UniProtKB/TrEMBL annotation:
Residues 171-270 form the HTH araC/xylS-type domain. SMART domains: HTH_ARAC (SM00342). It comes from the Bacteria. Keywords: DNA-binding, Transcription, Transcription regulation. This is Transcriptional regulator MtlR. InterPro entries: AraC-bd, Homeodomain-like_sf, HTH-like, HTH_AraC, RmlC-like_jellyroll, Tscrpt_reg_AraC-type_HTH. The keyword Cell membrane does not apply. SUPFAM superfamilies: Homeodomain-like (SSF46689), Regulatory protein AraC (SSF51215). The keyword DNA-binding applies. Pfam families: AraC_binding, HTH_18. Transmembrane segments: none annotated. It comes from Paenibacillus glycanilyticus. The gene is mtlR_2.
Amino acid sequence: MLDLLYWSDQPIEPFFHSHMHYEVYYFHGGKCNYLIGDQIYELAPGDLIIMYGMTLHCAKADPSVEYIRSIIHFEPTLLQPYLELPHARNILQPFQQLNNYRLRLRGEDKAEVERILAKMDEYQKRGDAVGDNRFRLAFVDLLYMILDHCEQPLLNRNRQEYSSEKEATVQRIISVLEENYTEDLNMELLEERLHLSKSYLSKLFKEVTGVTIFHYIYTRRINEAKILFLMQPELSVTEVCFRLGFKHLAHFSRLFKQYAGMPPEQFRKREQVQV
């Protein structure tokens, strides 16, 4: 699978989602905070994000500003023939080692990525074999450019810069949530650990991410449940329920169906059949 959504300006509602394939996301314009895993990025035109697999991510765009992005989804196995060519480099290395990472492209680098994306869109629309091959080769060229920018010593991901105190505070909240999302979390506990009032925490998190704290927690738990059903099919629904911090199976089942679109037992059986 190799799909390009080019220059999309469709409005969105913020929601957390994940998928098995890799993703290249390019931000053309607008005003957007992007939450990926436990990191928040305030985007600027020219930002390119690579995403690896099942990580939860959610874009929160300002609806008063036109939000324009291009998105590529692809299966890494598609690139195997290009990895076996003489003198080929591992163009999947940035995804495999950085997992989820933002490149801030400006000037000629920004223009080059936009030229490649425009060419990919042109080739994709041709609908013939030559166009399809040129589409794939243009994508390989884009991945080599990404590799080129990531080859400097792998950037220290602990030195995240924030554009404001608000983003830094929400990042602290997310770090606490990620460390404790399977525990019996409540607003009083967060208030105590972060030394901020419950009302301020709730308001700030929703303002920056577009979702509530407990929406984040439940989405994180359900996403982890899907991974467990996929990776450890011997686990029962009840075992996964309690492992992820739910006290009642009915509550877990109701939320799983709400977030995943089907009951957990159905999802688990489906994954076992596919395996």
